[in-house]
Each structure stands twice: as structure tokens, then as C-alpha cells.
Amino acid sequence: MKILIINGPNLNLLGKREPSIYGSLTFEEFFVSLKKKYAAVELHYFQSNIEGEIIDKLHEVGFTYNGIILNAGAYTHTSIAIGDAIKGIETPVIEVHISNVYSREEFRHISYIAPNAKGIIAGFGLQSYELALESFL
């Protein structure tokens, strides 16, 4: 099974950025532990702060991978283009968020990804990614 985790803008700052919301672990540290725990799964990771690069990656793997776990960050609430890219591929996508976006600012309650996603997981910290991974298994 091949699963790709895609992180969007500012998620490269995990471990440094607002630790009270996002925790103190870097995503790379978390990803190493995830790969060890799920050794039978071929896990890949991609992060970009650039909307077009995220779309390109969705197009690249969207017909060959078994699943995509996507935390598009703020693009979740602004990018019709990422939503359209998900609609155009065959690989199922699960939208994840580290924080509970529905307990935050009003603009974060809108997702252009959700209508085209298999499901949404939010508010469980980095465990949101693991829950998404479990749903594919």
C-alpha cells in the first residue's frame, strides 16, 4: 500500500510555530515514528508552501497511490484549485488538521477540500495523520 502525506503552507514550521496549538515535535520527527509503526506501508511525505506545487503533486500521484493524507493548511479555506485537483484524481484524499479548525476563526470553518475528500479528521494533534492512515488500512 502506498500512501502520501502532503502538508501545505507553514507546516514546515511544526515544532517551532505556535507550540500551544501545534505541539513541539517537528513533522519530520513524527514522520520517522509513523514509518516505524507502519513499516508494512510505503509512506511518502511532501511539503510545500506553494499552491501550484501541491496541485502538481496531487496530479503526479493521484492515479497510482492508494491514498493521500492532505493538510493543506490555510489553502484549505482559500484554494478552489486544490479542491478541483482532488476532484480530478482517482486516489482518495483525507483532509486532516492538527487543530480543531471549527473552534478557531470563522474563516477556518470553510473547506474547499472537504466536498471532494473521502473524509475529514481534525483536532487530534499529529494523531490526526495516524487516524487518517488507519482509515486507509
- Assembly level: single chain
**Looking at this structure, what is the CATH superfamily?**
Dehydroquinase, class II
**How large a portion of the residues is in β-strands, by DSSP E?**
15-25%
* Count of distinct strands: 5
DSSP helix fraction: 25-40%
Instruction: Look at the structure and give the mean pLDDT.
Output: 93
The biggest beta sheet reads: 5 strands, parallel
CATH class: Alpha Beta
SSE series: EHHEHEHEEH
Return the CATH topology: Rossmann fold
> How far apart are the termini?
9 Å
DSSP summary: helix tally: 5
Radius of gyration: 14 Å
Main sheet strand line-up? 2-1-3-4-5
Shape estimate = globular
Q: Specify the structural class.
A: alpha/beta
Spans of 5+ residues with little confidence (pLDDT < 50)? none
Number of domains: 1
Q: Indicate the CATH architecture.
A: 3-Layer(aba) Sandwich
